[in-house]
Design goal:
- With about 325 residues, this protein is an alpha/beta fold.
- It folds into 2 domains: about 180 residues, Quinone Oxidoreductase, Chain A, domain 1 (Alpha-Beta Complex); about 140 residues, NAD(P)-binding Rossmann-like Domain (Rossmann fold), CATH 3.40.50.
- The strands form 3 sheets. Strands 1, 2, 3, 4, 7, 8, 15 and 16 form an 8-stranded mixed beta sheet that branches. A 6-stranded parallel beta sheet has the order 11-10-9-12-13-14, sandwiched between helices.
- α4 packs across α5.
- The longest helix has 20 residues.
- About 10% of the residues have low confidence.
């Protein structure tokens, strides 16, 4: 692995607030760019030495004994590929291992026009945003979208994908005018921005849409935004909740509003999905979006890059909530 991204789930997992799904590794980190070291006998479409990016959601060795066993029996791992870390390092956060074994369905070719750092920023954020907007909410051209945490990694990806798939109004929330300007100035960015510290986003949505509301809401906040999200949604609106940063419980829920508006609400964590689901989603994402990365229509925005030995600083940077784009760690 040459580089990997830092995600909000890494922070939560480190603090004990994100239970790892059964079968997944307890090692922090879920996305990477790197080079294939070995292939299982049934893997096709890839070759040793090929540059790839991917999601490390599946089983991976967490100690040297397991590592040696996997290397000895790699011939039995017929649907898996082996990707090499440059070296083993122990940080204050977790132990990084030398090899990563994962299903072939979880990797895709690295775009040749992107650096290792840029490529590492694609998998988790863009595939999560694609799943929420396109797979779950089935966004249609001409519909209106509200994207919370717009300057986060997933938020930046969601803004671009919403524009790419023809959304009419792409409304995003952020904590500062600097972040809102950044999102609006992206070639495929937001059409409207709302500073949630100073404005009521439900009221702003009503103004922008002429009182109709948005068709899709992508939320990471949870309880604190529930009522305003329901208010902001149009009839037959869809909302995907990808995180619950304001807590696990909603004090009161008015079901009449959901019934009257025929609202559909779905929670989703991509990491808990089956290997088959992940592989199918990744395949669809890449078939629809690959050319847009290769012609720079979809762009990667890097907030800051850290060395592997400074990974604790990378976590602190994310916890400060000042990011505009992706935090990447390079292995050197």
């Amino acid at each position: 692995v040459v580089a990997f991204g830092i995600n909000r789930m890494d922070i939560s997992q480190r603090k004990g607030g994100y239970p790892v799904p059964p079968g997944a590794s307890d090692i922090l980190g879920v996305e990477f760019s790197g080079t294939i070291e070995e292939l299982g006998s049934e893997v096709s479409g890839f070759e040793v030495g090929q540059e790839v990016i991917g999601l490390a959601y599946g089983v991976s060795p967490s100690n040297s004994a397991t590592l040696r066993y996997l290397i000895r029996t790699i011939g039995c791992l017929c649907r898996y590929v082996l990707i090499r870390y440059s070296r083993a390092v122990t940080t204050c956060l977790s132990q990084q291992i030398e090899y990563l074994t994962l299903a072939a369905g979880n990797i895709i070719p690295k775009p040749k026009n992107l650096s290792w750092v840029e490529a590492a920023a694609i998998p988790e954020n863009f595939i999560t945003a694609f799943q929420a907007l396109i797979s779950i909410c089935e966004l249609k051209s001409g519909e209106d979208v509200l994207i919370h945490a717009g300057a986060s990694g997933v938020g930046v990806a969601a803004n671009q994908l919403a524009a790419l798939y023809g959304a009419k109004n792409v409304i995003t929330t952020a904590s500062s005018q600097q972040k809102l300007d950044f999102l609006h100035n992206m070639p495929k960015g937001s059409t409207h921005g709302v500073n949630y510290r100073e404005q009521n986003f439900a009221e702003e949505v009503a103004k922008i849409t002429g009182g109709r509301g948005v068709d899709v809401v992508i939320d990471f906040i949870g309880p604190d935004y529930w009522e305003k999200n329901i208010e902001a949604l149009a009839r037959d609106g869809r909302m995907v909740i990808l995180a619950s940063m304001s807590g696990p419980e909603i004090a009161k829920v008015n079901l009449v509003k959901l019934l009257y508006k025929r609202i559909r609400v779905q929670g989703s964590t991509l990491r808990s999905r089956s290997p088959e689901y992940q592989a199918a989603l990744i395949k669809r994402f890449w078939s629809e979006c690959r050319s847009h990365f290769e012609n720079d229509e979809l762009k990667v925005y890097i907030h800051k890059t850290f060395k592997w030995t400074d990974i604790s600083e990378a976590h602190k940077e994310m916890e400060a909530n000042k990011t505009m784009g992706k935090i990447i760690v390079e292995i050197s």
